[in-house]
Amino acid sequence: xxxxxxxxxxxxLLIGQVIDTNSASISRAVGAIGVKVTGMVSIxxxxxxxxxxxxxxxxxxxxxxSTGGLGPTKDDITKQALAELSGTDKYYMHEGQLAIVxxxxxxxxxxxxxINRQQAMVPESCEVLxxxxxxxxxxxxxxxxxxxxTLYAMPGVPFETEAALPDVVEDIxxxxxxxxxxxxxxxxxxxxxxxxxxxxxxxEDSLPKDVHLAYLPDPLKGVRLRLSIYSGSKExxxxxxxxxxxxxxxxxxxYIYSYEDDTLEGAIGRILKEKNxxxxxxxxxxxxxxxxxxxxxxxxxxxxxxxxxxYAVKIKENVLGVPxxxxxxxxxxxxxxxxxxxxxxxxxxxxxxxxxxxGYAGPGGGNEKNPEGTVWVGIATPNGVFSEKFCYKxxxxxxxxxxxxxxxxxxxxxxxxxxx
Amino acid sequence: xxxxxxxxxxxxLLIGQVIDTNSASISRAVGAIGVKVTGMVSIxxxxxxxxxxxxxxxxxxxxxxSTGGLGPTKDDITKQALAELSGTDKYYMHEGQLAIVxxxxxxxxxxxxxINRQQAMVPESCEVLxxxxxxxxxxxxxxxxxxxxTLYAMPGVPFETEAALPDVVEDIxxxxxxxxxxxxxxxxxxxxxxxxxxxxxxxEDSLPKDVHLAYLPDPLKGVRLRLSIYSGSKExxxxxxxxxxxxxxxxxxxYIYSYEDDTLEGAIGRILKEKNxxxxxxxxxxxxxxxxxxxxxxxxxxxxxxxxxxYAVKIKENVLGVPxxxxxxxxxxxxxxxxxxxxxxxxxxxxxxxxxxxGYAGPGGGNEKNPEGTVWVGIATPNGVFSEKFCYKxxxxxxxxxxxxxxxxxxxxxxxxxxx
Lengths: 420, 420
Known about the structure:
Two copies of one chain form a homodimer.
Chain A lengths: L2 E7 L1 H4 L7 H10 L4 E8 L3 H14 L2 E5 L10 H8 L5 E3 L1 H13 L6 H4 L3 E3 L3 E3 L8 E7 L4 E6 L3 H18 L6 E7 L4 H7 L1 H5 L5 E8 L3 E8 L4 H19 L3 E3 L5 H12 L3 E5 L5 H7 L8 E7 L2 H6 L5 H7 L4 H15 L3 E7 L14 E8 L2 E8 L4 H24 L1
Parallel strand pairs in A: 1-2, 1-3, 3-8, 13-14, 13-15
Antiparallel strand pairs in A: 4-5, 6-7, 7-8, 9-11, 9-12, 10-11, 15-16, 16-17
């Protein structure tokens, strides 16, 4: 099995001002062709360190992929370090990348400056894969390490890295024998990691030695279960995993909302689209997060009509038509208000389904009955109005995420119940 | 200067299913007391690898902070590896943490299982810092490396790691001499990294040798400039940075929206709160992202009344009161529709200010005049209605982010213009 390591370069990573998302993208991309990522390292914009760390990684890996340090500004010195590492001090202008530099700056209405042009200058020791979304090309240095290791130096901007990854993967396939690895994902929601682990403990013990199970909790998606097999034939692997997943469905079926890497909003979207139904939302404490999640799904305009974020009580009354008495009698955060909000936005927009939230995200707010961290979710459907309550104990940002995810899960459950 | 490295542990990181946010949080926290993070490493749930990598890091750093691998499920084997690394195979029950385990599970209405109880069992060789938000305690192993290095083993859940960081920082201060480091941040929006770099090139060349400048672009915040001094006296550092920042304001003042680490929505919130004004939003292509960003600011309910996400044309007409003729004549994505949406939501909610967006986030959509990636931003104020157009060329998710940030920046500019 091919071994790879990932090296992200930049002071901004080391001081924690930027979160590294490139390592995860790269790992997913190379993992799909069976390359095993053995480690990820983040190092500063330091010439000596770049050279020594990359050398160490090249000595024990077939492939090293670096990102960052290739920007036009003065704190980026990776390119010179790579030239030295590969034994050259000569550079050439890559005309293909230079054309892209011109095109990109023109489309932004900007002049091409010398520092932009320099982006297309690369060490003589490397080949180039074009960066179609940015100015710095991907540099490929071959024959390093013990003689057969390759270094791919990619730009640090995640949007550019992601776009260039298919070309890097293609290049790896063209130069190394790659094999297949089988991963299967199952999305669960509504059970904490430890409760889930207890429920499936016997099943987990029954897994063949080659099958690896991982629990991957995510506040917006629930707990993802991932089954992996690294060795054996593709067909055998598939059939083992399929039968194990069938067993698992029997144990925790109610909590599984998808049998692939998925999101709650994605699963909701597929059902609505298939059944030709529409959706709207009324958000208080989630402040737009539900609408935002729903509309990140491409094609969501086919089923999502719109939403009202009713932060002020007056908006709940005047726009959503929540009766003032309901709020007075039961409180803003209550089952009754959540239901009235859902019904209100369903009527306002003419949608088939509607979801609403009202709660206390904190800091502060809440009372004994509905303390800080409480959300009431309302669901209005052609068959009635329903509500459910959830309690969390997180900070504001995390509570908002959990509230939104709980609302989407409640909606998804209701859709399945009414439509299946 | 104290040196530290960060080691995140977990197969889920290596296969790219989870993005490591802990390293950045830890780095920011220890950086504030002058600890220099020399590297960040992510490694698999592999006993031998955990031991060898941590040993290597402890040999060249004063402090090593690990996260992850401490969950109750069967794929976590870090604790055993740490026991071995620190030369013991004996464990003790930490009663303080056990009490927290009971409390947390009770508050969630869950039974305390054996695997939960085991979370409070730790190797005899370590001291414990309590994890108040989760079940796995922070384990502190002293006297490692060359004899004076400390290993802090923290849980992997970011919410728990962040909450425990102040205690880890306090422990470092109690056991090592720590010094101060001066960072200053400047938030800019509206200039790309390379254009910004050209504009301030002479100024950058004039910086003293000890002052380090970094460009930190973020799609939601613009380009952050960070000035750092690692050595010298606190007073001298402060006065050097202050005078350099004053010079910079003279050069790019129009693009600077804050002189601290800030967000557009934070800066907007402060102005509205100070002037006792209210805000609403009407979103089409941004689908709730603007409302979401505004409401992530604690206390935003003081000025944010609410918003309408009008994904469907009918909602634009019926809820926001955009005239059907406006949409027919000028199109859904147009200056006129953006203005009518902003005016409409301002009227509907009775807010002082309103911001709107209508555009094509992609994939698909758009025309020659307003291609995919175009957004029109509308701003309605007590003094009139204004619009501005922005064009980007990203994927859907990134476009939505850029659109929302552009809308917030346009609003912020207008607020400053009308209120200063």
